[in-house]
Design brief:
The chain is of the alpha+beta class. The chain is built from ten helices and four strands, in the order H-H-H-H-H-H-H-H-H-H-E-E-E-E. It is elongated and about 105 Å long.
Length: 318
């Protein structure tokens, strides 16, 4: 059976959700409009197919650079072609994975609005910038390590001094400077700066651009499809109360609800009490009063209103 877009409960197509009462017809229509090739087109078109363009350039630019290094400097990288093929395949897998996870990304993005994440690092919007930035920082750190090692041609100097000396001797825009940079890059360690940078930056850019398209897709979807129940606290509490009363029907005549709060993960915690026992009080005049005793109860539910636990408290109240 299909799953309700609001509360993730199975429902009958064409009928309201039996749990939350949501009308899923806009969701059904959205799914019909975004199937197969049409789904890919509507996903990629707002970004002018940027991830596809980056994937196409991954192999072409890499193999062209490897060829030019071999032609100009005689630097042979026999592993360049298979490595670039694997890199291109990895970028394709990243795009497909983000596309297949677009609805989950939408849910997580909406959930980040109410989750307790002070830094905001877990949100998809933050990852769009953080992932490429982290890769760039790693590339710069590796570059700093390479420049601190002895220069291949002049071991008495480190690579940075070697490059600076070459620039001061020949000027910035000079073939000697270019050759020195290529020499340091290709022979300055077990991995070259270019290979590390290109091999890590391209997947990061594909992921970042794909994630940006997923958020754009989610925004368009939000304008047409009902929003998840965790964004509507009153509705979420109503659904949880109804299910809790049904599960606790054996405890007494009914739960008396006393409080509510949102949990850090976006769920909800409800406090209630139920009749547990009776107590007869007698005053000085001999008058007897029959009072019910109640036990506190804590109901914990996830962001979709699914009850995780119902915990009675050992506390009697009049």
């Amino acid at each position: 059976m299909p799953e309700c877009i609001v509360c993730k409960t199975d429902y009958t197509p064409g009928k309201p959700c039996p749990r939350c009462g949501a009308d899923n017809r806009p969701w059904e229509e959205w799914q019909r409009e975004h199937r197969g090739l049409n789904g890919w087109i509507t996903f990629l078109l707002p970004g002018w197919y940027l991830p596809v363009l980056l994937i196409a350039l991954t192999f072409l630019v890499g193999i062209t650079a490897a060829w030019e290094l071999w032609r100009a400097r005689g630097v042979s990288w026999p592993w360049a072609s298979p490595s670039l093929g694997i890199l291109t395949l990895a970028c394709i897998i990243i795009l497909v994975a983000v596309y297949e996870s677009r609805y989950r990304i939408r849910e997580q993005h909406l959930l980040s609005r109410i989750q307790q994440d002070p830094t905001g690092l877990l949100s998809a919007r933050s990852q769009i910038m953080i992932v490429p930035l982290a890769v760039i920082v790693a590339i710069l750190a590796w570059t700093a390590m390479i420049l601190a090692w002895p220069a291949p041609t002049a071991p008495e100097m480190n690579c940075l001094n070697y490059l600076l000396t070459t620039i001061l001797s020949h000027g910035l825009l000079n073939t000697a400077v270019l050759n020195a940079a290529i020499e340091v890059t290709t022979q300055g360690g077990p991995l070259s700066v270019a290979a590390l940078g290109y091999g890590s930056l391209m997947p990061a850019l594909v992921y970042s651009s794909s994630l940006w398209l997923a958020l754009a897709h989610a925004n368009r979807m939000n304008r047409r499809v009902p929003l998840p129940i965790f964004l509507h606290t009153a509705h979420l509490a109503k659904v949880v109360r109804a299910e809790a009363e049904q599960e606790c029907s054996n405890l007494g005549p009914g739960l008396i609800w006393e409080g509510m709060e949102r949990t850090d993960d976006g769920g909800i915690k409800l406090m209630a009490r139920y009749r547990h026992d009776r107590k007869v009080l007698e005053d000085l005049a001999g008058k007897k009063t029959d009072l019910p005793l109640h036990t506190k109860c804590e109901v914990l539910a996830d962001p979709w209103g699914r009850i995780r636990s119902i915990k009675p408290k050992n506390e009697l109240q009049v």
